Amino acid sequence: MSTPAPEGYDPHAYAPFAVTVDLAVFTVREARLHVLLVERGQEPFRGRWALPGGFLLPRESAEDAARRELAEETGLGQDTVGALHLEQLRTYTAPDRDPRMRVVSVAYAALLPDLPEPRGGGDAASARWWDTGAAGPLAFDHDRILADAHDRIGAKLEYSCLATAFCPAEFTLGELQQVYETVWGVELDRPNFRRKVLNAPGFVQAVEGPPRRTGGRGKPAALYRAGDATALHPPLLRPPGPDAPHSAPEGRER
Amino acid sequence: MSTPAPEGYDPHAYAPFAVTVDLAVFTVREARLHVLLVERGQEPFRGRWALPGGFLLPRESAEDAARRELAEETGLGQDTVGALHLEQLRTYTAPDRDPRMRVVSVAYAALLPDLPEPRGGGDAASARWWDTGAAGPLAFDHDRILADAHDRIGAKLEYSCLATAFCPAEFTLGELQQVYETVWGVELDRPNFRRKVLNAPGFVQAVEGPPRRTGGRGKPAALYRAGDATALHPPLLRPPGPDAPHSAPEGRER
DNA sequence: CAAATAGTGTCTGTCAGACATTATTGG
DNA sequence: CCAATAATGTCTGACAGACACTATTTG
């Protein structure tokens, strides 16, 4: 846009593109990472599952479009969607990523606590949660977007307080640990996890009145709320995998 | 793009957008972080400085467009530009960010070793390096893009081997340390810096033949090349600032 | 009581920052 | 010799992982 354009140029002289948003909406259900998908009703990829999303309106930012689409496809209230953390992932611009026309897509990730199935109605009729491991080949380049999103979320858990976004307003440290274990696909030592979470200033704050809640049998756990910090100091680093010496994951836009 | 579109819809029914790339090209000169800017030759913002960039061609990806524009504006060879690390930052979509028309811009960051001034010629005639601290108000929302880019680069230095991209093919550890100090705006302890860099597998590799090079007077330093790793284990963490207890920097898309 | 989950305490090796010291060059 | 930069070594405190142990609930 800073390249000198011809004097008195006509906007239509530049190639028009369609711009969409695609949403990778995650939740943790039963110790598995799930993603919200919609079934396509028409070609191309009719019958295949895809990330929810849609076209930007003429005077709408991508983030506004993402919230609007999310509300439409999940049936969540505008207030919930309005307060939600939306993380811009990256933008996909391969010329042939949509066979119909030139489409540039801005991808976002969103994290939700475990919710009931999206209520049928409007666009949400065909939406459901899928285990990320079981989600088959998706439409367009959405497999790639989903993989990028998973990587990014996993990386962000290390140095941000994002994990609480997967939890309800009040949660136990066991539930928070479950989020980390599910997204990272590892098991963590409970005492050490507690120590790190409680030592990170502003990550969580204890809920005063000693109400407690149980997750079945066993000792009831203390409840916490998300703290006021957004970044995590010190970071809660992922245990070094038994694998590669030095690889280069995506993600990390810290 | 997954929102059900009307059956047999016409692409022109959807709002057309212009898509551009904007480039934050950084280098370290004389212990200061510099960015490549171009002076605008026409309205809007005539005479103001802006990030280099330009419109996507009809069948070109954003990264291809970024490399093409970079070659045009800096006069760098296609081979250099082709091997360069380009980091997609984020996409800016505010509806009024360009007063002329609806423009969505994909921003990239690039890191270069200290180079001579861009050769005049073609679009590069008005390009020059600016100290990031002295760069005045830029055109459009480029101040914001530049600030985001600086944050991101700073964060990436912590957990990636990106810093070597600021250095020539063979460099000393003092030069590498200078990169960190300049981007982060802090001073680092040299012995500790050496230890961490040399302990990070694949970050740098010593150049065999004991050639040495000097940066003035003082003991000549051993030379190193970039290693084969792209991620840094363990990360080289920024010293905790004397400031805020917990803030939320941009950056970090790790 | 057994099983399951929550929570506390401790030990030990590693690594961080801080800093002293030596080495090698130019002026 | 002095200044400047490079390189090595050492000390100490903080923190990580590992793990033993206690507490509280359900069946």
Automatic annotation (TrEMBL), chains A, B:
Which segments constitute the Nudix hydrolase domain? 16-160
Task: Read off the CDD domains from this record.
Answer: NUDIX_NadM_like
Pfam families hit by this protein: NUDIX, WHD_NrtR
Give GO MF terms, alphabetically.
hydrolase activity
Alphabetic keyword roster: Hydrolase
Q: Where is this region: Disordered?
A: 229-254
- Protein family: Belongs to the Nudix hydrolase family.
Q: What is this protein called?
A: DNA hydrolase
Q: Which organism is it from?
A: Streptomyces griseus subsp. griseus (strain JCM 4626 / CBS 651.72 / NBRC 13350 / KCC S-0626 / ISP 5235)
- State the organism's lineage: Bacteria, Bacillati, Actinomycetota, Actinomycetes, Kitasatosporales
